[in-house]
Amino acid sequence: MLIGGHVSTAGGLVKAHERGVERGCDAIQVFNQSPRMWRPTTWKPNDVEAFLELMDDGPIKSVVIHAVYLINPGTKDKEMRKKSLASLTHSLRMGDAIGADGVVVHPGSRLKEPLDEALGRVGEMVREALAESDRCPLLLENTAGAGGTLGRTFAELYDVVRRAGGSKRIGICLDSCHMLASGFDIRDDAALAAVIDDCVAEFGLERLACIHVNDSQTPLGSNRDRHAPLGDGELGDKGCSAFLSEPRFEKLPAFFEGPGVEGKEPGAVDIARMRELRKKGLARRKRRAAAKKKARRK
Predict the structure, then answer these.
(1) Can you tell me whether residue 42 is helix, strand or coil?
(2) Are 132 and 86 contacting, i.e. CB atoms less than 8 angstroms apart?
(3) What is the pLDDT of residues 214-269, one digit of tens each?
(4) pTM over the 0.70 mark
(5) Which CATH superfamily is domain 2-297 in?
(6) What is the DSSP string of 214-270?
(7) How far apart are CA 1 and CA 18, in angstroms?
(8) What is the 8-class DSSP label of residue 135?
């Protein structure tokens, strides 16, 4: 597993890489523009070149872009669709330029429109954005389920994949806070395993591309997206360590988005906590496996 966090790109990509290294990250997630503004940002060629050289040398082994929150692929409003498609396409092109392992996007909201029609619009936009970019995968993120948000269930996410043509470039990003908030009980190893069984049955393991490891301020089924520092929320140490040690998440980039223990963006202390929780989860799984093996011998 590549442990990482969301870092700022203030000052450019090279500065973002520096922040990742300073925090002890194996992977970094960035916004390719201000998350609440439509104005696109195009990184300078010399910044991109220097960033790619740094990525070749390590220790950061993966970069993922998070698309802006304003994008709503599910809307039927023509102007909003135009802006959303332009922004999503731009994100994918920037992902192409920097060798990103994906662009994470929320499937959006249907508002008060029929679910089936909204999912069809999301699929259409995903198909168009992929056609206007070259390589970078598009990663659909599960949502907390507030209001008319789309992507609350694996079935809804898979419906988008199907309607978008089933391209191998479409992957899934699972967010632990969103999962709990939308009603998935993932607070221990066994509960999480059962949920991921359902996820893999829907998509196949190959579409799982990255995870967001965030604790939740609000309880199971709250449908509210409110992050807490790792181990301090409703998932707690047990739930977070389960997520960080789930065998099917091995080799994936795992991002803590914050807020961290200092109330700001993820810091070195939060990345260290991720590693500690992962270690705790792996040790627990190892003990349980050893106990089962011992019981079978009797």
Answers:
(1) coil
(2) no
(3) 999 999 999 999 999 999 999 999 999 999 999 999 999 999 998 999 888 899 99
(4) yes
(5) Divalent-metal-dependent TIM barrel enzymes (3.20.20.150)
(6) -EESS-TT-----EE-TTSSSSHHHHHHHHHH-GGGTTSEEEE-S--TTSSS--HHH
(7) 20
(8) S
